[in-house]
Write a structure and sequence with these properties.
Elements (H helix, E strand, L loop, with lengths): L2 E6 L8 E6 L7 E11 L1 H8 L15 E9 L3 H4 L5 E4 L2 E2 L5 H4 L11 E2 L11 E5 L3 E3 L6 H19 L8 E5 L3 H12 L3 E6 L2 H9 L4 E4 L5 H8 L5 E6 L7 H4 L3 E9 L11 H6 L3 E4 L5 H12 L7 E6 L3 H10 L5 E5 L1
Parallel strand pairs: 10-11, 10-13, 11-12, 13-14, 14-15, 16-17
Antiparallel strand pairs: 1-2, 3-4, 3-8, 3-17, 4-5, 5-9, 6-7
Helix pairs in contact: 1-11, 4-5, 4-10
Length: 343
């Protein structure tokens, strides 16, 4: 039997607790993955705080993992060859049969069985069991900490950006300066967009400019709607990519769009947003949500990192036993990049 060491939520709003348990026998067509790195993000903070997602406790967070396969239960030869190989894990356990799965939108599977670290025990752990089809290979020379961020940091904005449409020479406003935003800036720049970043921390805005943003705005004491209108010769932006998830910003940021523009919601909270009917209708504004990412997005994200087109920004690397410190850092919003647990 394999003994698993992990950090678990045992009471919402309290610190994670170190625990161990014996793992169950591996299910058919599943792999046991020795986790080497896992990114920590705002969703993990929401889980620990009991905001929105409230899985049955004790519960193990962690939905941005990479590691190596140590055991396989499959009669398929190609899967038996996975032992000892390195992978990033697609976190959603999907049905593979519904309309959305069959059309390549398994990120919104209509009969999803669970999501690693969201509703199924995740990767704040030494080992995780996942379906073999959820394993995406990573190059031998790719650092596990970087590979772990291919999903939660790179593939998340990638899906949203791919759904926007023509990006060449388009003015795209990025709301937020976290890890997703830093990846989005690089993707948009490579796609030929004029990237405008709105945030509240000067150091993060400086990094945004270094990564390719053409115009950055500290929104703390600035009318950024006017500044963006001026930058776009009065027309407004083609797209807004909202990665911040601040409900107070949406009614403001939507006014940066030109007629016919698109507002893409990626970051989120569990609050209610009040928007102007007339703005949406009379300016023909399109509002769309973008949830997580697909396996294909994850494969593309690995290639983007491999080919040095996108570099995930890592600010802290901590051991598994420092998971509470990692949560505190993310909660504070002070990190200049992603916090990663190296396990």
């Amino acid at each position: 039997m394999t003994t698993n060491h992990y950090m678990a939520i045992v009471e919402y709003g309290k610190k994670l607790v170190e625990m161990t348990s014996e793992m169950k026998p591996l299910a058919r067509d599943y792999a046991r993955v020795r986790i080497r790195a896992n990114g920590v993000c705002g969703t993990d903070v929401k889980l620990v705080d009991g905001v929105g997602f409230r899985p049955q406790l004790p519960f193990v967070p962690g939905h941005e993992p990479a590691g190596e396969v140590v055991e396989v239960n499959s009669e398929t030869p190609k899967y038996r060859d996975y032992i000892g190989k390195r992978f990033v894990i697609y976190p959603h356990i999907t049905c593979g049969e519904c309309e959305n799965c069959l059309s390549g939108r398994e990120n919104i599977c209509l009969a999803v069985k669970g999501s690693l670290g969201i509703s199924i025990n995740g990767a704040f752990a030494e080992y995780v069991d996942v379906p073999l089809r959820n394993l995406i290979p990573i190059p031998d020379d790719m650092d596990f900490s970087v590979a772990a961020l291919a999903g939660g940091v790179v593939a998340v904005p990638l899906l949203a950006i791919r759904s926007l449409g023509d990006l060449i020479n388009k003015n795209v406003v990025v709301i937020g300066t976290g890890g997703l935003a830093m990846a989005a800036i690089q993707i948009l720049k490579n796609a030929g967009s004029n990237v405008i970043v709105v945030g509240r921390k000067d150091k993060k805005l400086e990094l945004a400019k270094e990564l390719g943003a053409k115009f950055v705005i500290n929104s703390t004491n600035t009318d950024y709607v006017k500044e963006i209108r001026d930058f776009t010769n009065g027309l407004g932006a083609d797209y807004v990519l909202d990665l911040a998830g601040d409900p107070k910003e949406v009614p403001v940021a939507i006014n940066t769009l030109k007629r016919g523009g698109t507002y893409s919601v990626v970051g989120y909270s569990f609050s209610t947003i009040n928007l102007s009917y007339s703005k949406i209708a009379l300016d023909a504004i399109k509002i769309q949500g973008s949830r997580s990412y697909t396996r294909n997005d994850l494969r593309i994200a690995v290639d983007l990192i491999k080919n040095k087109l996108v570099k995930p920004i890592i600010s802290h690397k901590l051991p598994l036993t420092s998971a509470n410190e990692a949560i505190s850092i993310v909660r504070s919003g002070a990190s200049l990049g992603r916090v990663v647990l190296e396990i």
